[in-house]
Design goal:
Helix content of chain B: over 70%
Structural class of chain A: mainly alpha
Distance between the termini of chain A: 36 Å
Number of helices of chain A: 9
CATH topology of one domain in chain A: Four Helix Bundle (Hemerythrin (Met), subunit A)
Number of strands of chain B: 0
CATH architecture of one domain in chain A: Up-down Bundle
Radius of gyration of chain B: 18 Å
Order of helices and strands of chain B: HHHHH
Helix content of chain A: 55-70%
Oligomer: heterotetramer
CATH superfamily of one domain in chain A: NADH-ubiquinone/plastoquinone oxidoreductase chain 6, subunit NuoJ
Shape of chain B: elongated
Shape of chain A: globular
Structural class of chain B: mainly alpha
Largest sheet of chain B: none
Chain lengths: 210, 138, 493, 122
């Protein structure tokens, strides 16, 4: 029953996210959305996932969103008209999924194929083969360790990407002259003078103003 | 926010505990919920809190960007390195079983090391992303 | 001894090289690493292809865990061939990148650029080599995230919006794919591809599997830029840095197509796709409409990179057309066109990269009289263009030949006619460039342009010569492609 | 009724997915689109975790010395997959937001229609 209530909350909050145009409010609701999601994960026995969802969804994502809003704007423009095509596309996708869930094994069914074929092996053998009681950790780090290596590479990619996109330019003679070319070129993007950013007063970042 | 004395005191008090908790999550992940990823995020959060309360410049003194980028690479290299080490010990890539005398303790060691790699890179990436976002804002 | 671990090294070498580049923080060093690693993976890919052709599929169990509990690599003639394409293109693009990157990207970012490039290579190779459905998603995201970043580094601010658009559409595609894999997992309880293929037979007629099939094909269709899901591609290719355009245009869509082939043929099975889902008809219609719509749009582009990007959408149409015949000849045509298109688009975009290097633009107006000022570059463009049209003695001819053959084999001569007709559209857009470059006088108020440096010309001409060589001697490409087609259709090989 | 109880989790997932997807394709604000992507992806997490739930089960952490009574555990595999997917999601968000910041610096707006108007001008 708790499950249904939480899921209903989830639905309401996401409706609110769609409707509200103040992006600060939306981001805060996004944080609540993640917390609710995490509670549901706990009820569904996925404690590790819940932990991660809280840390990432309610924590890091929210901070990044707030930082972005501080750097951009927090009002969403009201669109001229409700576009019809996205609505149709969304409904077709949703209909296809409802159709797809019709034959899916019932929720919580211990004899569903998903719970019978590969999974029991982990539950039975992981303690013997790896000595780690948390099966999720055992599967994550060992049986499917290669996936986790890939996952870590994704995070690494994101780090490199953000540094490439937003990182402060190191002052080198070449980059300084390059900057002049870009400035005189006109059409090129200008990288607003981050290079000479002075350390004035060590005031907290804009992101922290929230 | 440098004038908010309560925030500064509370932050100063709680940051060590946040870090300690991160380490607990990191090394207790074998037995309870948690693991490298969650620990990394929490560890990163400690730095983010520090930057929020004491300003980015002070935070950059504690964790300069060069050092953070260094750790971004180190974590991934540690993970991949464990895999390659398994190759040298005669196993398949990422086969931790060959790392120690018996298979189970090898697995245990391997899992510990790769989770550490995950923790290091995740924490460093989170710090790096937040610092670059914050730096862009001034 | 080390040969047994080639499959792992294929992925791990670029994966380790990427953080190494960041650690060393030197642009030149990072470039050297990128070149060395690209050549290494190319060498390994050749070895793997030989091994597969000689002694059948290779399986490599990661972590020593047997499939389906662990993740395995499974290399057969299909993905060995795609590995060869991706790593081969990287082996010529990495040396080429040096000069263009120096010109287009701030020097202090070079090491990060090469790191992202290596990550993209890792992701693409990882998608191809793996035998695990979920692992495909992970590596798909590595390649996608790194390509978003790489595209956004273009000089024009439109590169940013192009990258953003690609990020949104790419994530939708990847999430659709994830939904599909989830539904498959719910019905089969496994993620290993070979295992799924076996266990899917029993539940083939459920609505869930049908929905899974739809989500996986649409998701991959987005990544593949299959018409009408191609909207992200033209701007992304047009505004990305030159080296990135060459690399992505020659590899990314092929990898997505490979993944689609793998899921449709190996996992779901050709019979299921033909009888239950009517996929063949859908694909054929989309392919033909895509070829014409994209080719016609290409004719009206004045930014030549954008023109070629639209042409890429059309070429994806040809590949998908080959697949949609569901016959050995058609699939051979589709698979061999992956290789051939990589060669021709690689050469063409390299030529444009050289033009951009000298002119700072690839606008048609500014290319007047370029045939005399940059003779080698423009001649490379001409041959690449001929290949795109499908003139005999180029690789393009081989692909079209097989497509027409496949159409006639089925007795669908109108399709054959449409393929020929669409080639005329390619003549139209290639001719516009040739006319401007060779039959107009260079603009007077601009400084004289000289030929591109050797470091750009050599990789470019390697691909140009490959266009001719594989247009004459088809024993390698057709041989492997035919075997791959047979193995996909379950006819052995 | 049994059918409903057995499937409502999946339908909520479909509903959330549709909302997120709608925000992504219909809204012109670049930040909102990213938020939509987040909801869209989070709904898929719900799908996977629902697949792995076993009634009467507990979190898949092996309890030592449970005596004779066998303990039922929920399926750990979807949890592992979703841990990976969450990480991929936050990586995508971080990159997307970085792009939004750069777009805002280059165009002075984060509304899609205004940006495409500017792009049309030469």
């Amino acid at each position: 029953m708790i499950n249904i209530v939480l899921l209903a909350f989830l639905a309401i909050i996401s409706l609110a996210i769609v409707r509200i145009r103040n992006l600060f409010a939306v981001v805060m609701l996004g944080g609540i959305y993640s917390l609710l999601m995490a509670s549901i994960f706990v009820i569904l026995d996925a404690v590790d996932v819940a932990f991660t969802e809280v840390a990432v969804g309610a924590g890091i994502s929210t901070i990044l969103m707030l930082g972005t809003l501080a750097l951009t704007t927090s009002r969403e423009k009201i669109p001229m008209h409700t576009p019809l095509l996205p609505l149709i596309v969304t409904f077709i996708t949703g209909a296809m999924l409802v159709y797809g869930t019709w034959d899916i094994p019932a929720f919580g069914d211990a004899s569903a194929p998903a719970n019978l074929h590969v999974a029991p092996y982990y539950l039975e053998r992981s303690m013997v083969e790896t000595g780690v009681p948390n099966v999720v950790t055992a599967v994550l780090a060992s049986y499917r360790g290669y996936d986790t290596l890939g996952e870590l590479t994704v995070i690494f990619t994101a780090g490199i990407g953000v540094l490439l996109l937003l990182g402060r330019r190191r002052e080198t003679p070449a980059s300084a002259s390059e900057q002049k070319v870009a400035a005189s070129g006109g059409t090129g993007r200008s990288d607003p003078g981050k290079e000479t950013a002075s350390d004035d007063g060590g005031s907290a970042s804009k992101g922290s103003a929230t | 926010m440098r004038h908010h004395i309560i925030l500064r005191v509370v932050a100063k008090l709680s940051i060590p505990f946040i870090m300690l908790y991160a380490l607990y999550v990191q090394f207790h992940g074998d037995f309870g919920p948690g693991g490298g990823f969650q620990a990394g995020v929490i560890f990163g959060a400690a730095f983010i809190l520090y930057a929020l309360i004491f300003g980015l410049d002070n935070a950059l003194k504690v964790a300069p960007m060069n050092v953070v980028t260094f750790f971004i690479s180190i974590g991934l290299l540690l993970y991949a390195g464990v895999g390659v080490a398994a190759l040298f010990y005669g196993g398949q890539f990422l086969d931790y079983g060959v790392l120690a005398s018996d298979s189970v303790s090898g697995q245990h060691l391997g899992i510990l090391l790769v989770e550490l790699g995950v923790g290091i890179t995740v924490a460093a990436v989170m710090i790096a992303i937040f610092f670059t976002f914050a730096d862009r804002g001034r | 001894m080390i040969a047994a671990h080639y499959p792992a090294l294929q992925i791990v070498a670029p994966l380790i090289a990427a953080p190494l580049c960041v650690l060393l923080r030197r642009g030149t060093l990072a470039w050297l690493i990128a070149v060395a690693v690209s050549w290494l993976v190319f060498f390994i890919a050749i070895q793997l292809l030989q091994q597969v052709m000689a002694s059948g599929p290779i399986s490599y169990e990661l972590g020593g865990w047997a499939a389906p509990w662990g993740i395995e690599y499974r290399i057969d003639s299909v993905n060995a061939f795609v590995l060869l394409i991706v790593s081969g293109i990287s082996a010529v693009v990495a040396p080429y990148a040096r000069a263009t990157v120096a010109k287009e990207i701030p020097e202090d970012r070079h090491y990060l650029f090469y790191s992202a490039y290596l990550l993209c290579l890792t992701g693409l190779l990882g998608i191809v080599i793996t035998g695990d459905a979920f692992n495909v998603f992970v590596f798909l995201e590595i390649s996608s995230l790194s390509s978003y970043v790489l595209i956004s580094l273009g000089k024009d601010r439109k590169a940013l919006t192009a990258a953003y658009q690609y990020l949104v559409m790419g994530t939708i595609g990847a999430t659709f794919f994830l939904i599909g894999v989830g539904l498959v997992y719910a019905m089969t309880g496994t993620l290993n591809m070979a295992d799924i293929a076996v266990r899917l037979d029993a539940v083939e007629n459920t609505r869930t599997v049908l929905a899974a099939f739809a989500f996986i094909t649409v998701g991959l269709g987005l990544k593949l830029a299959l018409f009408p899901l191609h909207l992200w591609l033209p701007n992304a290719y047009a505004y990305a840095p030159s080296a990135v355009t060459v690399f992505l245009a020659a590899t990314a869509t092929k990898v997505a197509l490979y993944t689609m082939l793998r899921f449709v043929f190996t996992l779901f099975g050709a019979d299921f796709a033909l009888n239950v889902t009517f996929l063949a008809g859908f694909l054929m219609a989309l392919a033909i409409v895509g070829v014409f719509a994209a080719s016609i749009t290409a004719i009206f582009q004045n930014n030549i990179k954008r023109m070629l990007a639209y042409s890429s959408v059309a070429q994806v149409g040809y590949m998908v057309l080959g697949v949609s015949f569901f016959s050995v000849t058609g699939l051979t045509g589709g698979i061999v066109h992956m290789f051939n298109h990589a060669m021709m688009k690689g050469a063409l975009f390299m030529a444009l990269g050289a033009v951009f290097y000298r002119l700072g633009t690839v606008h048609l107006d500014r290319m007047r009289g370029l045939g005399r000022q940059m003779p080698l570059t423009m001649f490379a463009f001409v041959i690449g263009g001929f290949s795109l049209i499908g003139l005999p003695l180029t690789v393009g001819f081989i692909s079209k030949w097989y497509l027409i053959l496949a159409a006639l084999e089925r007795g669908w001569w109108p399709i054959a006619g449409l393929v020929l007709l669409s080639s005329l559209l390619a003549v139209a857009y290639v001719w516009r460039v040739i006319e401007v470059a060779y039959f107009r006088d260079p603009p007077e108020n601009h400084p004289k342009v000289t030929e591109a440096p050797l470091s750009l010309l050599v990789p470019m001409w390697i691909l140009v010569l490959a266009n001719i060589y594989f247009g004459i001697d088809t024993s390698l490409t057709i041989g492997v492609a035919e075997r791959a087609a047979k193995s996909l259709l379950g006819l052995g090989g | 009724m049994d059918f409903f109880v057995g499937h409502y989790n999946y339908w909520i997932f479909v509903f959330l997915m549709m909302l997120g997807f709608y925000v992504v394709v219909a809204r012109g604000n670049l930040v909102k689109k990213i938020i939509g992507l987040n909801i869209f992806q989070a709904s898929v997490f719900l799908l996977y975790i629902s697949i792995g739930k076993v009634f009467g089960g507990t979190a898949p952490i092996i309890i030592e010395g449970a005596g004779g009574s066998p303990v039922t555990y929920s399926n750990p595999l979807p949890h592992v997959l979703i841990l990976t997917a969450i990480v991929v999601g936050v990586a995508t968000t971080a990159l997307g937001l970085s792009l939004v910041i750069r777009i805002n610096e280059a165009y002075g707006t984060i509304e899609e229609d205004e940006i495409s108007e500017m792009d049309l001008e030469p």
